[in-house]
Amino acid sequence: MKNTIRTLAAPAVLTLALFATTAWAQGATTAAAPSAPAAAPAKAGPAGKHEDFVEKRIKDLHTKLKITDQQTQQWEAFAQTMRDNAQKTDEAFRDRAQKISGLNADDAMKSYAALAQLHADNMQKLVTAFTALYGTLSDEQKATADTLFRNQAEKRHHAHKGVPAAPAAAPAAN
Questions:
Q1: Is pTM beyond 0.70 here?
Q2: Rounded average pLDDT over 30-39
């Protein structure tokens, strides 16, 4: 009985982990530049909360990275990729949630695999946009980005293992 519950619960737990990682990643890249057009109003409900999280993360990163006017084009591409990824992920999770009760085990696993593939595809798009942005950053901005992204990865790793994360290190001064 315990093995059956674990077998059935594993895809749900992995899906939750995938969603949390996607939410963070998308949040990391969707802060709008001051010169950017206003974002569409957030939707009500869980999707709205996720959109709010993504926009807050974008704004936070924009501030911490001190994006300049000269970096706006690359920043906007990165932020829009994050928004697009968040929207696609939200849609995929809503679609799966509506269908999951009617899926057999084989279809449920295929559905989970589709979510995992979507996450991988989204991350590749995000990496491409971030690489273009990173190339425009000053040494100081790169040091800040390196610290921010490294600390987020450590927090996720430690949270997954149930270990408290180490305190964040200050960005290196140049």
A1: no
A2: 33
